[in-house]
Amino acid sequence: ITEVKGIGFKTADVLALKMGVLPDSIYRIKACINFILVKTTADEGNSCIEKQELYQKIIVELDNQDNTISEKLFNDAILELISEKKVVLLENDYITSAFLYKAETGILENIKKRLNIPTIKITENIEEFIKNKQAEMNIQFSEEQKQAAKLVNSGINMFILCGYAGTGKTTISRAILELLSIRYNVENIVCCALSGIASDRIRKTTGYNSHTIASLIVQANKRGGRFPCKVLLIDEASMINSELLYRLFCILDDDCMVIMVGDPK
Fold first, then answer.
1. Confidence band (pLDDT; 50, 70, 90) for 171?
2. Does some domain include residue 206?
3. Residue 4 burial (CB count, 10 A)
4. Can you give the residue range of the structural domain that contains 53?
5. Are residues 124 and 249 in the same domain?
6. Residue-wise pLDDT tens digits, 35-48
7. For residues 205 and 194, what is the distance between their CA atoms, to the nearest angstrom?
């Protein structure tokens, strides 16, 4: 029943019990496990949960007052879900959903691949670039902002820029993109964000084309699954869940430089 569009676990559980499904049915327990894993990710931001904690949540969710759902039944349900490739058992007895495991391992491999690409310095005189950019923008960069520009200048293909609101992320993002424009044409430098409002804001503050992540994926699907660009700046990256970030990485060429901008947490 949970596979029917528009019917969540709670509604499906009530219907199933009314239709005669037993309270200790392994199908009911498996459906609840999937529900808890998704809920944990959405509500707590965690991509996995300790198996014993998962069992306790199942007990509460299924209102196991008569103790019909034993730990053995729970473990049997976990083993079936593992054999069906719907959940993955991690180290230290942690459980995660298979689709999330695929997304996060895919993200990791994608990052490793980018970090292994040989680096080529953009400009030999980064100090001069910083000096000129400060004069042009009528601002004095902090040491952290200068270091960010120097790291990007080294030619790295993966860069994460963290900072709370008001710390100058947008300012140095604009400077970094202009540094990269020394090597790449403007049309090959693209920004994106989760929401349309954030996408429009980054377009206005940096001057570079920007899209929502969803629109980039749609465009890629129309082009054989790839979105052609040499630099992609992802604003408000901390707002993006693992599944969407993985889908975004999958449409980028291996040599596309990725800049992720967001809050530390």
1. very high
2. yes
3. 10
4. 9-97
5. yes
6. 999 888 878 888 99
7. 16
Average pLDDT across the chain, whole number: 91
Shared domain for 19 and 121, answered yes or no, is no
Which tokens belong to 262? 């967001």
pTM: 0.86
The Cα 252–Cα 71 span in angstroms is: 44
Please give the DSSP secondary-structure letter assigned to residue 118: P
Residue 178 near residue 209 (C-beta atoms within 8 A): no
Any domain includes 106:
no
- CATH number of the domain enclosing 159: 3.40.50.300
**3-class DSSP assignment, residue 259:** strand
Query: What distance in Å separates the CA atoms of residue 81 and residue 100, rounded to the nearest whole number?
Result: 14
Both 80 and 123 in one domain: the answer is no
* pLDDT-derived band at 5, boundaries 50, 70, 90: low
- Determine which helix (DSSP H) or strand (DSSP E) holds 96, and give its type and residue range: strand 94-97
Give me 42's structure tokens.
């959405």
How far apart (Å, rounded) are the C-alpha atoms in residues 9 and 160?
Answer: 37
CA dihedral 178, 148, 173, 123 (to 10 degrees): 10
Residues 200 and 75 in one domain: no
Tell me: do 134 and 230 sit in the same domain. yes
Residues 28 and 73 placed together within one structural domain of the fold? yes
To which H or E segment does residue 27 belong?
A: helix 26-44
Nearest to 64 by CA among 89, 28, 27: 28
Residue among 124, 118, 170, 165 at smallest CA distance from 148:
170
